[in-house]
Design goal:
The chain is an all-alpha fold and 143 residues long. Among the domains are: 54-84; 88-137. 64% of the residues lie in helices and 0% in strands. The chain is flat and about 105 Å long. The termini are far apart.
């Protein structure tokens, strides 16, 4: 397909810069505390007039995003119900099931070890308590 060459639009000439007014030609100056306070109060007043609540646009966006998620879930619901859970013949499901079984065994073993450790500590505590009681009652002069 042949290219069509178009002429560029005519360029505009730049206007000469305007002469600065005498006020703009002065050097920058520091503003006084009263002027600073006035600027701060004007800024605060400007922002105070803004609404503090969430707007209607926020509510519409929230409802729209919830609707998109709900419609997407509903559209995949039929497929998920039709396919159902993975069967035991699925190799990926077998891997997941084996890993879960291993995790259960590890958790049971750790729970058993912790229970035995707690039981040993409880017995040691009871022995130490009995020794402390017998030592305080058998000591002469201590009531």
């Amino acid at each position: 397909m042949p290219r069509i060459i178009r002429r560029a639009p005519p360029r505009r000439t730049k206007a000469a810069p305007r002469a600065l007014t005498p006020d703009a030609q002065t050097t920058p100056r520091l503003i006084s505390d009263a002027e600073k306070r006035e600027l701060i109060l004007a800024h605060a007043e400007h922002h105070r007039t803004r609404p503090q609540k969430w707007g209607v646009g926020y509510a519409v966006g929230l409802v729209a995003s919830c609707l998109v998620v709900a419609v997407g879930w509903f559209m995949t619901l039929e497929t998920n119900l039709r396919n159902g859970w993975p069967t035991s013949s699925d190799p990926s499901w077998t891997i997941v099931k084996d890993r879960l079984d291993d995790m259960k065994k590890d958790a049971r073993e750790r729970t058993r070890q912790e229970t035995e450790s707690i039981q040993r500590l409880r017995e040691q505590y009871q022995k130490a308590k009995q020794q402390a009681v017998s030592a305080t009652t058998s000591s002469p002069g201590i009531h």
